[in-house]
Design goal:
Length: about 200
């Protein structure tokens, strides 16, 4: 069960946004990721609880940020309920999309699991519902993912395969690179892996 810590920062000006302390593991029915997010000063800022089925679809998502809450799942596309900090209002949303995304590295793992790309295959288009900080406002985004290459690296715990993805935002044309090993993000825009106490899991 990988356990560690990511540092989060603004991908454009590198302003520190905080840290995400996580653990994750594959299970008999898929994969689960749980994390607690802190501010740069160390205060609690939110949490992520994401469970995928064995096809990479989100069977349960629970996000907390700034007292806002989102619960969602893959249902008729993706469906979610967003609750305000007072708990007075809850709004439901549904979009014909493939999955969810957001600032947590968990969503990069989830999208890669959903697409199951192979090196050299053409870029694959995916529609996602993004929950944007700090109030978890939903926004539908279209991305293109391509697996550029997979490389095996020698480590003390045996070979480690690192996948390099090129991700393109289809509305702006902006491109960036994401490096993933198993169920851990090694590097991505706004994300740095600072601490990893156990090796990444290898998906079957």
């Amino acid at each position: 069960m990988p356990r560690g810590r990511y540092s989060l920062h603004d991908p454009h000006d590198h302003t520190p946004l905080g840290e995400e302390h996580f653990n994750c593991a594959p299970g008999p029915s898929g994969w689960r990721y749980v994390s607690q997010i802190t501010t740069p000063s160390g205060d609690h800022a939110g949490s992520v609880d994401l469970a995928l089925d064995d096809l990479g679809r989100p069977i349960r998502l629970e996000l907390h940020a700034a007292s806002w809450q989102v619960r969602g799942a893959a249902l008729d596309g993706v469906t979610w309920v967003r609750t305000d900090p007072t708990g007075t209002y809850a709004t439901e949303g549904n979009v014909r999309a493939h999955a969810f995304t957001g600032t947590s590295p968990a969503f990069l793992i989830a999208t890669s699991r959903l697409l199951r790309l192979t090196p050299g295959s053409p870029p694959t288009r995916v529609r996602l519902v993004a929950f944007t900080d700090p109030v978890l406002a939903p926004r539908t985004v279209d991305q293109s993912w391509a697996l550029v290459k997979s490389e095996a690296h020698t480590t003390d715990n045996g070979p480690l395969t690192v996948d390099e993805y090129q991700v393109s935002a289809l509305d702006t044309g902006e491109q960036h690179t994401v490096h993933i090993a198993g169920d851990v993000v090694l590097a991505a825009p706004g994300v740095e892996l600072e601490d990893l106490q156990t090796p990444p899991s290898v998906f079957p």
